[in-house]
Task: inverse folding
């Protein structure tokens, strides 16, 4: 899967930084890097399914990133892999 752009919503930026201690730069490294992607479930809105990316940041940190894909744009939420 190839993504071209991420649309960040403020509430998700605040959540991933405060709750999960993940920076937006780390999420972008996973989404634009060599990660494994899969569709987690069909979305409630046509063409907006929930996907998961499993990958590593530039520093080697493992992350699981949940995002809604709309065409080539991702709306993100992330957490560290356990």
Result:
């Amino acid at each position: 899967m190839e993504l071209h752009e991420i649309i960040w919503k403020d509430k998700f930026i605040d959540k991933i930084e405060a709750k999960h201690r993940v920076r937006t730069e780390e999420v972008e490294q996973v989404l634009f890097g060599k990660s494994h992607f899969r569709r987690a479930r069909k979305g409630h809105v046509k063409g907006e399914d929930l996907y998961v990316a499993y990958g590593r940041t530039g520093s080697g940190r493992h992350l699981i990133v949940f995002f809604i894909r709309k065409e080539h744009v991702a709306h993100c939420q992330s957490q560290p892999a356990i």
